[in-house]
Amino acid sequence: MAWARRDASRSTLLALTGAVALLTGCFSGGFLAGKTCQSNADCGPDLRCENGLCGGSPATSDDSVGETSTSTTAGGSSSTVGPGSSTDTTSPATTDPSTSSSTSPISETSSETTSAATTGPACECDAIDVLVVIDQSMSMEAFEDKVIAVFFELFSGLEEAISNYCSYHVGFTFASEIGHNDEKCQGLGSLITKASGEDCAAMHTSGRPYVDETDELGPALLCIAGAGSTNIEGEQNPRPAQALLNAISPELNAPGACNEGFFRPEAPLAILLITDIDDDMDNHPDGYGSPNDPNDWFPELFEANNFTPENISIAALIGPETTQDGCDAGASPRLHEFVGLFINDNTAVANICDDADTLTQEFVGSLEMLFNTQGCMGE
Fold first, then answer.
1. Which of 23-27, 89-93, 286-290, 350-354 is predicted with the least confidence, judged by mean pLDDT?
2. What is the rounded distance in angstroms from the CA atom of residue 147 to the CA atom of residue 126?
3. Which runs of E-coded beta strand occur in 147-247?
4. Which CATH code fits 125-370?
5. CA angle 289–294–356, rounded 5-degree value
6. What angle, 0 to 180 degrees and rounded to 10, lies between the N-to-C axes of helices 294-304 and 240-247?
7. Using CA atoms, how far apart are residues 51 and 49, in angstroms rounded to an integer?
8. Which of 18, 194, 229, 304 has the smallest number of Cβ neighbours within 10 A?
């Protein structure tokens, strides 16, 4: 791998579904044809959301008029009409307990009400915490198109998977410092609360540093995922393992701390780790990386989650285990070793050098299985 740094003024753009304004310079969105959607914004600049699928005529400047979508949720289905649509008045009355109208399938399924087609409870599992650790250093720019494609595909799967849970916490952190956050919460492992010019926590999560079942999942995650590099000191020193451990530490989750209330030791923890380099301080030319070794990292994680290995899962989009010709990512034996310490059924590993189609079809499918959408993680 070439360790050379790129122009620090450039930011790595990692975004989720619907961030068209952020992504139009990166891709046309054509690969989204046939994917599920909630609005035109979910389908990139060239496709329109029609009947819940991306396709049809090019999107007009009015993203809301005439949009309809259908989404399948745990135990039922729902139809939503885009805000501002002239057909809003035809949706079922929200006072009818047998139906629901919502802009988010997550908020719908986590409520106490059920949809017309639901025959059971709106949620089946107690709780889950989801932590996304993303390397946003300059070397990741070579892979941002692939990562964006994975996030687009992952988004709908994540919505469906966590809709089974009565309570969920979803937090994002960088593998290094968080330049967008307030100064006291820029340290390694703090959850992202702000993006460029936007206070995501204030706008979408009632001030919390994470998204939960009371929030609209899509807009909240879109805001958070729009945060890119800010060139503060230490930002080019990715330490994914230490960022993960810090994010769930008692110190950062204590009352009044940066991640207050995010991590719940009694709840299953699902981790998504994305980086193109190995976490190896000793062998990095600049000494970048987390201290200690995988055999130290895992016991600390294991202890934090009440010594319940079945309640911890990890999905890692990382470099190959050994050097690979034609791949810009570095070999990542230590991260592969770390993932290998988890229960096999609770892991999914993909090579960040694979093509976008392979990543979206195989890796995202493995991610969805980790959430065990037919049951509850850890049971």
1. 23-27
2. 30
3. 165-174, 194-195, 198-199, 211-212
4. 3.40.50.410
5. 70
6. 20
7. 7
8. 304
Query: What's the pLDDT tens digit per position in 165-198?
Result: 999 999 999 999 998 999 999 999 999 999 887 8
Nearest to 351 by CA among 365, 336, 338: 336
Which residue, among 328, 358, 347, 360, has the nearest Cα to 137 in the 3D structure? 328
CB 305 within 8 A of CB 312: yes
Rounded to an integer, what distance in angstroms lies between the CA atom of residue 279 and that of residue 338? 10
Distance from C-alpha of 367 to C-alpha of 345, rounded to nearest angstrom? 11
Residue corresponding to tokens 């009565």: 166
Q: What is the pLDDT of residues 233-266, one digit of tens each?
A: 777 899 999 999 999 999 999 999 999 999 999 9
The DSSP letter of residue 221 is H
Rounded distance, CA 146 to CA 275, Å?
12
φ, ψ at 349 (rounded to 5°): -125, 135
Which of 5, 344, 373, 352 lies closest to 159 in space, CA to CA? 373
Closest CA to 190 of 244, 234, 128, 270: 244
Sheet holding 211-212, edge to edge: 211-212, 165-174, 125-134, 269-274, 312-318, 347-351
Q: Is there a contact between 20 and 44 (Cβ–Cβ < 8 Å)?
A: yes
Cβ–Cβ under 8 Å, residues 23 and 13: yes
Residue 311 in this model has a pLDDT that exceeds 70: yes
CA–CA gap between residue 217 and residue 73 (Å, rounded): 14
**CA separation for the pair 135, 343 (Å, rounded):** 24
Mean pLDDT over the full length of the chain: 74
Question: Per this entry, what is the length of the chain?
Answer: 379
Q: Which two tokens stand for residue 50?
A: 């029609």
How many Cβ atoms sit within 10 Å of the Cβ of residue 76? 20
The crossing angle, in degrees rounded to 10, of helices 217-225 and 144-162 is 150
Return the domain boundaries, the chain: 20-109, 125-370
Instruction: Please list, in sequence order, all residues whose beta carbon lies within 8 angstroms of the beta carbon of residue 325, skipping any fewer than 6 positions away.
Output: none
Which tokens sit at 47?
Answer: 């496709």
For residue 154, report the phi and psi dihedrals to the nearest 5 degrees.
-65, -30
User: Is residue 172 within 8 Å of 192, Cβ to Cβ?
Assistant: yes
Tokens 């719908």 belong to 108
